[in-house]
Each structure stands twice: as structure tokens, then as C-alpha cells.
Amino acid sequence: MNYLAHLYLSGDDEGLLIGNYVADAMKGIKVSSFSADIQQGIALHRHIDSFTDHNDHVRESKKRLFEKYKHYAAVIVDVYYDHFLAKNWTNYSDEPLVEYEQRMYDLLTFNKMVLPRDAIYFLKYMMDQNLLSNYANLETIGNSLSGLSRRTKFKSNMEYAVTDLEEGYDLFQADFELFFPELEASVAEFILKSKFKV
Fold first, then answer.
1. How confident is the model at residue 195 (pLDDT cuts 50, 70, 90)?
2. Mean pLDDT of 145-165
3. Whole-structure pTM over 0.70, yes or no?
4. In this structure, what DSSP letter does residue 35 have?
5. Which residues contact 157 (CB under 8 A, 6 or more apart)?
6. What digits encode the pLDDT tens for the residues 60-83?
7. Which distant-in-sequence residues (6+ apart) come within 8 Å of 87 by Cβ?
8. Helices H, strands E: what count in the chain?
9. Domain ranges of the chain
10. How many Å separate Cα 191 from the centre of its chain?
């Protein structure tokens, strides 16, 4: 899953939210350097990624893309699924997405002193682009995939993957709609078993 889903699945617990956000920017940083609640958020992020990687519905989405994009199919599906979450946000939250987005930016900005450098850079980019709410737009999805493509070591062709989303839109959305409740249930169970405060 991508940034919007990771934040959403953290609920309103600040430590989980911060940890879930910074987890992809941990290169060279020890988890133990963070407070216990942020460490819990990092653990939650990793649980979400593991569950997603092994889910049958996600595998169906990746299978449609694998021939063209190989192992980058997983990255593409993450972006697609954030699109479907943003596009259908009212199915998951009573809080308007633009208000939720601003609340997340305010929270992360207030806690900027604990964020890794790469997480701070990306936060500025997210805010400048209103990225979380704009995931609902296919143009933003195309731009995000193009940006990811520019940062890969090898040619990924991800800049073309928005066309695959448009052509297989209903199939990918159906996969997401089957997958996401399963992910929500898994996260709730993980938090309960870990005795996280939510």
C-alpha cells in the first residue's frame, strides 16, 4: 500500500501515524532510535506491507501487470490502490478527504523534528502537490508513476502504467474492493494482539 492507505490504517494514534509514515525512510536509521509508539507504527507498516504482498486479490492485480513491468508490478499496484481509496474515500471515512489530508500534514509537520531527512523532503512534496487528495485524479497517478520510474536503477516503464489502469479500471477496482476489508481486519487484529493504543 502507499502513503494514504498507510496513514488511514493507523487510525488516530499519533505514534502509529508517524511510524507508519517514516517506515519507508529508515535507511541507515535504527528502529530503536524512535520512541516506543513510533516503533509500533513502523511495525504496523511492515505488517501492512507483508499482508499486502501475500494477499490473493493483490496477486491478481499484479498478475495483470507482471508481463510488462516484472517486479515493478507490486509498486504500481500500491499506487493504483491508493487511487481507489482516495476516489472512494467516503466509503471509508466520514471526514472529508481534504480535511483529513490537512490534518495529516499538520501532524507530520508538528513532529518534523523526529522525521528522517527523506521523510521531511517527501512531506514537503506531498504538501506542495496536495498529493493525498489528488490521488483520486488519474493525472496525479500518472505523475506519481512517472516520478517512480525516474528513480529506478533499471528501466521500469512505470510511466506508462496509468494506461493499464485506465484500460483495466473495473478489474483493478474489484480487486481492491475485495482486498481492502481483509487488510482492515488484519490491521485491527494486529493492533489488538500487539496491545497498541488506538
1. low
2. 89
3. yes
4. -
5. 68, 69, 72, 149
6. 999 999 999 999 999 999 999 999
7. 135, 136
8. 11, 0
9. 3-26+34-194
10. 18
Q: How far apart are CA 107 and CA 14, in angstroms?
A: 8
Q: Which DSSP helix (H) or strand (E) runs through 33?
A: none
> CB–CB of 166/51 below 8 Å?
no
Rounded Cα distance, 190 and 81, in Å: 21
CA atoms within 13 A on the CB side of 104: 30
In the 8-state DSSP scheme, what is residue 29? -
148-151 CB contacts, 8 Å cutoff, 24+ apart: 148/75, 148/79
Q: Using the Cα atoms of residue 172, residue 18, residue 94 and residue 87 in order, give the sign of their dihedral.
A: negative
Nearest-angstrom CA–CA distance, 20 and 50: 14
Q: Are 161 and 151 in contact (CB under 8 A)?
A: no
Site of grid cell 471526514: 95
Residue 198 has pLDDT above 60, yes or no: no
| C-alpha cell recorded at residue 99 | 480535511
The grid coordinates listed for 150 are 525516474
The 10s digit of each residue's pLDDT in 76-103 is: 999 999 999 999 999 999 999 999 999 9
Q: What percent of the chain has pLDDT over 70?
A: 98
